[in-house]
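Board notes (copied after class):
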Amino acid sequence: MEIGTIEIKEDIKTFFMLTDQVPEGIPALFEELGDKLNGLDRYHLYGVTERIGEKLIYRACAKENFSGEAAKYDLPYYIIPNGIYLCIDLQNWQENIRKMPHFFGELLNNVNAKKGSICLEDYINENEAMLLVQHK
């Protein structure tokens, strides 16, 4: 897979649900988020993996459609930071979901990757996802 760069020009305001059961708890987390939001079709979805101490945590995030939407669902906010990201465009992501850790490993081991970067999944549509880590 080819590694490119992309700029997120503005912070992205999302709200989320969290698990520390990575990766096995991720599908159920998105299902739970969908139940809480009465479906996910009207949302731009993201996944964020982050190391906190010795533990990995995963946030299933939905981009806020209107100000205060998180409060409506009693969910916390997470801001995806703007900046330059290294990225891999993943087609047919559902068929390639088991390869995501490998691709994130490639991104994190790139000489231009920021140490301690988040691993960001941007679900563009049902077929395409962008895998991103922060650039130095």
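Comment from the instructor: The helical segments are 26-36, 69-72, 100-108. Residues 82 and 99 are 26 Å apart (CA to CA).
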